[in-house]
Amino acid sequence: KKGTGELEGVDYVEIRYEGYGIGGAAIVVDCLTDNKTRTVADVRHAFSKYGGNMGTDGCVVFQFKHCGQMVFAPGTDEAALMDAAIEAGAEDVVSSDDGSIEVITAPGDFMAVRDALEAAGFKPEFGEVTMKPEGENVFTGDEAVRMQKLLDALESLADVQEIYTTAVMDE
Asked: Would strands 26-33 and 64-72 be described as parallel, antiparallel, or unpaired?
């Protein structure tokens, strides 16, 4: 009866799994599940089937920074954005090679900084609280295809909410 949903009191729990993909790329998988046994089996199967290895708690999460991240379009006034972001309490402002500007905040300060920047006339193209990789593993060719298959397999699992990785696929 529990399996068909006829019983009341289904408890959902958040759980995080960590592991390594192709070439040692770090992968963090956040799940929301009512059955931890099923979820761990599904995640472990996806890792092993596509060339990865599921690890223990804490084995890769240190390679990520839990932070708020906002990205502003190329052409945004960098000096004005930097002044407004620092005044609003942002931790860092980083310019990218493509001209876009990234504002990094503490997770708890994300909403306040975003609201302050929007009030100052800066609208981010993208913004969320995330696990930002501290480094990158760049993949090309066959390795990129294999890594993408692993990430797709993990993402296709019903209980998976978010996937964070150090892998970057080069076109």
From this structure: unpaired
Q: What is the pLDDT of residues 135-158, one digit of tens each?
A: 999 999 999 999 999 999 999 999
Q: Which residues of 36-62 are buried (b: 16+ CB within 10 A; e: fewer)?
A: eeebbebbeebbeebebebbeeeebee
Q: Per residue in 119-129, is it b (16+ CB within 10 Å) or e — as a string?
A: eeebebeebeb
How far the first Cα of the chain sits from its last, in Å, is 49
Amino acid at position 13, single letter: V
- CA separation for the pair 43, 21 (Å, rounded): 12
Q: In terms of C-beta density within 10 A (0-12 exposed, 13-18 middle, 19 or more buried), how is residue 21 classed? A: buried
Residue with tokens 């990234």: 102
CA 45 centroid distance within chain: 21
- Residue for token pair 């480094």: 135
Q: H helices of 15-90, where?
A: 36-49, 78-88
The pLDDT tens digits for 91-123 are: 999 998 888 999 999 999 999 999 999 999 999
The tokens describing 123, both together, are: 């609208």
Query: Which residue's entry shows tokens 């759980």?
Result: 15
